[in-house]
């Protein structure tokens, strides 16, 4: 049962419907701005080496895996307004640290950037787990696709706009002012999240013991916390993600998607510059523009024909998202202008299908996973997918040394057809 603590001036879903997508946009815009600016500033101003840039990347992603279980415990133990405000304040801290990094100089500046990335990572994992618990707990089932579509539009729009506007900001305002502006955006998100009621989603062991208001369950707060910690493990969360055939297939598909994507990303720019007339600047513009198709995909999810608003849509668009990398591999292999056109088509197909399938998968998971299990299931799902990211980059880098970049891309693209075939299987097509 979802509990709302205290009196709220409006229904929880009303406050969330208006505040959450806007706060989501502001948060992801600020995050994308810093993710774009930190490596650039670290290299151009502080003279960071490739080893430092790699360490900054580890600081950005490793805490999201290592602290996944802790994030689930926090989300289960505290009300969601407190969790989401806390995660935004961690982002404010990250942006302020980034603004101060230049003052620390070349010696300590990269270390300050590292601390900022750790704070940013902690905020990201808390927000992700809390959102996947909060939304299905508050909104009626029929409203879930629309809410997830709005959140997807906000995230994709922020990811598309932030790099360009951050580059402009760095040129016009300077480094510290740009990071300060990102902190202001995060504070604006906090102002919106304050309107969310104090919604608490108890864990299962807490619900089982709560027979009524004022009932003495015989357990102290410490015992209840220990019970929650005992059942909130990543291993249990992983089993929840593999509990049914559709969940199992979609989890394997997601990990394969992230793994294969990162194998390809490790070598894609090198191969494109060698095989096609694309320049590095043109590549940046291209990647920024195609993100708009993710916005389009999320926005049309609920306007698709009725059969595609079911498991069939999840299967079709999930297959399209991973199969697009086979198109990328073919384009790189052909080279020249025709090959570049195929690469562009692959990017567009990936972004559009990803925009649709993300909404479909989030909706399905909200319906398929019990309320008391959502926090740890989401944390384990994120941990598995984020682990696939560095593994994919490492595999791509090694494969690029053993084979040629073009051969690696063609092979990886062809292998991506396997998860495409998997997600088209009957259990996914027949899932609601």
What do you see in this structure?
- With 432 residues, the protein is mainly α.
- The protein contains 17 helices and 2 strands.
- The chain has a two-stranded antiparallel sheet with strand order 1-2.
- It is globular and about 55 Å long.
- The two termini are 23 Å apart.
- The model is unreliable at 4-9 and 205-226 (pLDDT under 50).
Quick recap of the structure?
It contains 17 helices and 2 strands. The chain is an all-alpha fold. Helix 9 (234-241) crosses helix 14 (374-402).
User: In terms of per-residue confidence, which ranges show pLDDT below 50 for 5 or more consecutive residues?
Assistant: 4-9, 205-226
Most strands sheet: 2 strands, antiparallel
Q: Helix fraction?
A: over 70%
Tell me the number of strands: 2
Termini separation? 23 Å
Return the structural class. Answer: mainly alpha
User: Per DSSP, what share of the residues sits in E-state strands of 2 or more residues?
Assistant: under 5%
Radius of gyration: 22 Å
């Amino acid at each position: 049962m979802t509990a709302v603590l205290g009196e709220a001036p409006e229904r929880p879903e009303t406050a969330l419907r208006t505040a959450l997508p806007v706060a989501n946009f502001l948060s992801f815009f600020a995050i994308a701005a810093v993710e774009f600016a930190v490596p650039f500033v670290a290299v151009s101003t502080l003279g960071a080496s490739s080893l430092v840039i790699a360490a900054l990347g580890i600081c950005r992603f490793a805490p999201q895996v290592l602290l996944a279980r802790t994030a689930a415990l926090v989300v289960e133990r505290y009300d969601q307004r407190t969790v989401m405000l806390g995660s935004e304040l961690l982002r404010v801290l990250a942006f302020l640290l980034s603004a101060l990094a230049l003052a620390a100089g070349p010696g300590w500046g990269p270390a300050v950037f590292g601390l900022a990335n750790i704070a940013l990572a902690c905020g990201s994992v808390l927000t992700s787990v809390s959102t996947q618990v909060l939304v299905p707990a508050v909104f009626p089932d029929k409203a879930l696709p629309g809410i997830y579509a709005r959140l997807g539009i906000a995230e994709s729009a922020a990811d598309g706009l932030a790099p360009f506007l951050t580059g402009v900001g760095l040129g016009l305002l300077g480094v510290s002012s740009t990071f300060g502006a990102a902190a202001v955006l995060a504070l604006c998100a906090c102002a919106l999240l304050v309107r969310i009621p104090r919604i608490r989603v108890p864990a299962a062991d807490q619900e089982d013991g709560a027979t009524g208001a004022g009932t003495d369950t015989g357990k102290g707060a410490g015992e209840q916390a220990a019970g929650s910690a005992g059942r909130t493990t990543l291993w249990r969360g992983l089993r929840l993600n593999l509990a049914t055939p559709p969940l199992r297939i979609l989890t394997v598909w997601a990990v394969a998607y992230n793994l294969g994507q990162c194998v390809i990303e490790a070598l894609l720019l090198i191969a494109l510059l060698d095989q096609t007339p694309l320049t590095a600047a043109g590549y940046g513009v291209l990647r920024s523009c195609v993100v708009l198709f993710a916005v389009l995909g999320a926005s049309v999810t609920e306007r698709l024909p009725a059969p595609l608003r079911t498991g069939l849509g999840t299967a079709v668009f999930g297959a399209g998202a991973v199969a697009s990398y086979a198109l990328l591999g073919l384009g790189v292999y052909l080279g020249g202008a025709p090959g570049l056109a195929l690469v562009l088509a692959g990017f567009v197909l990936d972004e559009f299908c990803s925009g649709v399938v993300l909404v479909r998968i989030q909706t399905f998971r909200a319906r398929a996973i019990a309320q008391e299990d959502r926090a740890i299931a989401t944390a384990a799902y994120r941990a598995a997918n984020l682990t696939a990211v560095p593994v994919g980059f490492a595999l791509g880098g090694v494969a690029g040394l053993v084979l040629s970049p073009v051969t690696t891309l063609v092979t990886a693209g062809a292998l991506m057809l396997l998860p495409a075939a998997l997600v088209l299987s009957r259990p996914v097509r027949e899932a609601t």
